[in-house]
Amino acid sequence: MTTPDTPSSLVAVDGIHTYYGKSHILHGVSLTVGRGEVVGLLGRNGVGKSTTLKTIMGLVQPRQGTIMLEGQAIAGLAAHKVAQRGIGYVPEDRRVFRLLTVMENLRTGLDRPGVTEQRKQELLDKVFAYFPVLGERRNQAGGTLSGGEQQMLAIARAMMLEPKIILLDEPTEGLMPRMVSQIRQIIDVLHNEGVAILLVEQNVPMTLEASQRVYIMEKGVIRHHAAASELKVGDEVIRQYLGV
Ligand SMILES: Nc1ncnc2c1ncn2[C@@H]1O[C@H](COP(=O)(O)OP(=O)(O)OP(=O)(O)O)[C@@H](O)[C@H]1O
Ligand SMILES: [Mg+2]
After folding, report:
1. C-alpha pair distances (Å), 66 with each of 5, 29, 204
2. 13: CA distance to ligand 1 center in Å?
3. Band of pLDDT at residue 2, cut at 50, 70 and 90
4. Which residue, judged by its Cα, is nearest atom 16 of ligand 1?
5. Looking at the domain assignment, is residue 113 inside a domain?
6. What are residue 17's phi and psi, to 5 degrees?
7. From CA 153, how far away is CA 123, in angstroms rounded?
């Protein structure tokens, strides 16, 4: 299945094949994310969701296929170059710096060329307004935060880079329901700020609520693509590919 690139596409992935050594994992994955759009990527364990995000991010290189950001090819670029072009990434394991304070974690995203002191302060003020708990804990080590707070910190740190899109890999995994709804609100905040999101999840109801469009993956291919409003838990297609 190929998804034609439209002029409004921010990211357009077309026919990517990704391998780990000899293991052929992605078999021609195509998807698009529009400017400011929230797009869900659903699928069972091991179907290649994280590999899709890693390939977009340049952490693994596709052997075939193209990845465009704002009409420019980015496949083949190193991950830090992809980040500089405006793609933020929050991996599955969150990877906050456990020994650095919350503030120091955030600063790692701010110390880059062209960001004035005033802009740095604005960005910090914004995340502390959105995530008051991070403000309260600004001098606490990242490793002492709860799982949900670390997830918030990882997302907040990605926001410091002012990305056009954030790739979020299972942000609600292992979180309590109250934290899940906070992560859900953060997705809405980002959406209202015009930041696009490619949301990998196993939480089907949350993804259908938060996204405008959804792709469903199975064994390294996209099997289904629909407006989120056209799908609900219990539908045949959801049962078939996701088992809920
Ligand atoms: N570094 C690696 N080396 C070899 N095989 C890998 C590597 N990372 C992932 N795989 C394999 O690639 C396949 C896809 O993995 P991937 O992590 O992309 O799946 P996923 O859809 O994100 O799964 P999950 O829901 O469990 O996070 C799996 O079979 C996995 O075992
Ligand atoms: Mg994964």
Report:
1. 11, 10, 28
2. 19
3. very low
4. 48
5. no
6. -120, 120
7. 13
Domains contained in the chain, number = 1
Tens digits of per-residue pLDDT, 93-118? 878 999 999 999 999 999 888 899 99
What is the span of the domain harbouring residue 77? 9-94+162-242
184 inside domain: yes
Residue 153 included in any domain: no
To test the pocket of ligand 1, the residue of 16, 17, 18, 23 to mutate (highest count of ligand atoms within 8 Å of its CB) is 23
Given the structure tokens 């790692």, which residue do they identify?
A: 108
| pLDDT above 80 for 8 | no
Q: What is the pTM of this model?
A: 0.94
146 in any annotated domain: no
- CATH number at 234 reads 3.40.50.300
pLDDT for 240 equals 92
CA distance 212 to 64: 28
pLDDT digits (tens, 9 = 90+) for 181-196: 999 999 999 999 999 9
